[in-house]
Amino acid sequence: MVKKKIICTIEARMGSKRFPGKSLKKIDxxxxxxxxxxxxxxxxxxxNNKNIYILTxxxxxxxxxxxxxxxxxxxxxxxxSEKNVFSRYQFLKKMGNLPILRLTGDNPLIDPILxxxxxxxxxxxKVDYLTTRGMEHSRIWKIKSSFPKGISxxxxxxxxxxxxxxxxxxxxxxxxxxxxxxxxxxxxxxxYNSFGNYKYLKKNFSYTLDNKSDYLRLRSFITKNNCKxxxxxxxxxxxxxxxx
Length: 244
Description:
The protein is α/β, with parallel strands linked by helices. It contains 8 helices and 7 strands; from the N terminus they run βαβαββαββαααβαα. The protein has a 7-stranded mixed sheet. The mean pLDDT is 91.
């Protein structure tokens, strides 16, 4: 049951230069990368197939991805520019000011329990922008993440995303939330800290899938730990380690 009106966006495409076609690469016997991301999102108590939007591009190589998503899931698909990722978010303007949870299609192990706790914190603290991420190369946002790479969530209000849109540059087009980190407007931002079992995650282990070596490492991790999409895998894995 969705307790709050919210939209979840998941950016995904097949045209990665470092690992083409990665969204449909199988990371266990049954499920591809994009399956993990969508199923994990669907198992959040705040999300369902009506408020999840896959943001992809009109590039021809995304046709198999779009077909797969429409056949296997009943989530929404937004098709926009390949290079201007920010433009894919324009549909939000027609929906009023809503809380947005932003996920990316290359992070398969975002647990539903983490999504729920993260969103509850966002609603409670009433900030404009909340993130697990660090952005050390930003001129202003110097705070480091307390999560390892690939455990990345962002939440913000949709009206804040379009503030000073006329002044956006290439960084904003490629990374839609770039200006939050650079405080281009008066926005209340906050970092979300790790908690419980997430504190035990190895900071030098990457849970994101950017290239083939990431793919092989994550597939091995998923097989070794018998991970299944839609289950609180990382929480449970760390719980077992701490009890041994």
